[in-house]
Every structure is written in structure tokens, then in C-alpha cells.
Amino acid sequence: KQEVTQIPAALSVPEGENLVLNCSFTDSAIYNLQWFRQDPGKGLTSLLLIQSSQREQTSGRLNASLDKSSGRSTLYIAASQPGDSATYLCAAMEYGNKLVFGAGTILRVKS
Amino acid sequence: DTAVSQTPKYLVTQMGNDKSIKCEQNLGHDTMYWYKQDSKKFLKIMFSYNNKELIINETVPNRFSPKSPDKAHLNLHINSLELGDSAVYFCASSQDPGPRQPQHFGDGTRLSIL
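YS: structure for the whole thing
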């Protein structure tokens, strides 16, 4: 059974810092790995989707990497801003096209 | 011009009641989903429909019954509500059920059972 773990559970950084959020999954037989952002009281916004055959994806200040063999993905945020404060969720798509989510990392960027 | 909209946003009701949550998407997507986010913040898939056909049905009590009248709508009906049903329910859609398309989420319906 696929399990997705995110570390750290919470992170507080000063504005301008580069940071890394970690995601690990137990079953490497995934179709893709997705990163989402969730703002309080809101739904999830898709940030990056990495196909199983890819190693990384980039969008603006965000870069996500995928290492299937080790069961890990990282989300790198460059030059963090207060507007980046949110909960970041990773999800692995497993057989049957089902997304299995981690519990998230709560990020706070202080101005 | 909300992409995935859910109603109501909040739902407070008594144990034993029957309630429905509605979801509509205007993205022209073929696939829609229902997720449950519990108090520990874990999001878990409940159901998925593709072109009005049920394609994912996780281990969910049969008190939960999804209905898709057309591709743009996926409603969730819950019978005999229990305390453990308190959660945030999210609707989502994607262009197709495959791994290449991201899912787009609604803002959620917070269900509280008294």
C-alpha cells in the first residue's frame, strides 16, 4: 500500500531564503508525482506534475525533482516571499490513476 | 468564472440526517473526483467518474452515493450522517483520468455533524 510522507511538517523562514520541501513514497511504481499548494479555506492548486519518466519540472521560482528509485521528490522554492506561505502537498499517482497524498508541509515566510 | 465550484461551502447538520453536496466544473473536463480531507489533513480519494461512468470507488461506506447527471456535474449524497463524516470534502476535475493531466480542485465543503 502506497504511503506518502512529507518532511518537515512545518517550516518558518525569513523572506528571501531558498528552501527545500521533501516528499517520500514507499512504492516506486508510480505514474507521476504532483505538488500542490493549499491556502487556508481554499482548494488545492496544482504547481508541478512530474511524469514517472521525467527527473524534474520547473515553473518560475519552483523546481521539483523526482527520484523514483529512492522514492523521493523535492520541491525547491527560490527567493521565498510572504505570498508563498501556504500548505504544500505532494501526491503520488499509483496504479488505477489514484492520487495518494502526504499530510503536507505548512510553510510560513516571514517579511 | 470559477473553474470548479462546490455548494454549499459550509454544512452543519444533525447526526442521522441526509445531505447532498453539489459540484460543477466549467473546464470541459471529462473526469471528476470526490476527496475527503479528515482532521489530520490527509486527502483521500473517494470516487472518480469519467464521462459519467464510475471508474474509482474506494472503500467508502455505501451511505455515500455519487451521482453524475452529465460530464460537468458530480454530486455527493450522504445518508444517515455520522459524527465520523465530519470533514472537508473536495471536488476536483481533470481533462482525462490519465497521469498526464493535473487535477483542478474546488474550494471544499466543510461538513460538521452535531
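YS: worth flagging: The interface with chain A takes residues 4, 40-45, 48, 55-56, 58, 90, 92, 97-100, 102-108 of chain B (CB under 8 Å).
IM: good catch. Also The longest strand of chain B covers residues 43-50.
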